[in-house]
Amino acid sequence: MIGLVLAAALLLTPAHGASSPAADATEAHTFTNAGGKTIQAHIMGVTGESVSLKRDDGQTFNVVIKTFVDADQTYIWHWALLDAAKKGTPIFKFELSKTAEVPSGKNNKYGTQGYAVKVTNTTSLRVLKPVMQYQIFDNPNINVPGAGLNGYSGMFNPDEIAANGTGSFETLKVTWPGLGGQAIGRLMGLWVRVYDADHQLIQEWSSPPELMKKEKWLFIERGRRGAGAGRGANAPNPPADSGAPTSPDGTTGN
Predict the structure, then answer these.
(1) Distance between CA 196 and CA 48 in Å, rounded?
(2) Number of independent structural domains in the chain
(3) What does the pLDDT look like over 67-113, one tens digit per residue?
(4) 68 & 6 share domain
(5) Can you give the residue range of the structural domain that contains 53?
(6) Same domain, 80 and 101
(7) Smallest Cα–Cα separation from 245: which of 131, 155, 132, 129?
(8) 230 part of a folded domain
(9) Residue 49 contacts residue 35 (beta carbons within 8 Å)
(10) Which stretches in the chain have pLDDT values below 70?
(11) Which pLDDT score is estimated for 176?
(12) Is residue 165 part of a domain?
């Protein structure tokens, strides 16, 4: 016991302040610093590059997160991410632009188009190995009233999006035939679900916002769903930083 107290005194700086209910509910974790010294404590909160810890005896400390071994740093950032998600904090901001439509053919044209997506981490948290599954939707024929939408699935798995940092990816592209020199299909929106490294949902977003209410989430890796299953076969493979890997553990992109 004396050895543990001495290790804690060398490792930690006392702090004061109330904790959040979400943090109080966490289980005690054994943290190890670079010198091999350990302490068992509960995470109370993360601010900037520091974590607030509380021992079972009630003593509370602030510690620079980089003090700990890599596994414990990952544990802390993961805790902070889930805590923010529980509080309803939007982790990421998404901005869309359409990739250029490409005409082809002498007497007719077809259009190929997808979305370029900029992802901004709006928090001061490091987000490690997020899994961003998405579906893009198109109207396959704007000349047919009441035509349903098709959905195409993909995934973006960056190793990390730093605090207040950005990432980017391009979605799968959809190809439509042409009529009168113009493509008959149109992109209608994007729906994204963001999961943490343990595949817990931490954020959901769509553009337009009503897309999540009108359509169904039917994610299929490297697949698509909807009417006309054979259509779109001419669409190119997704770019290297946006294609869905064969498992959620795969990592590509920025």
Answers:
(1) 20
(2) 2
(3) 999 999 999 999 999 999 999 999 999 999 998 766 655 555 677 88
(4) yes
(5) 2-86
(6) no
(7) 155
(8) no
(9) no
(10) 1-26, 101-109, 180-181, 221-254
(11) 84
(12) yes
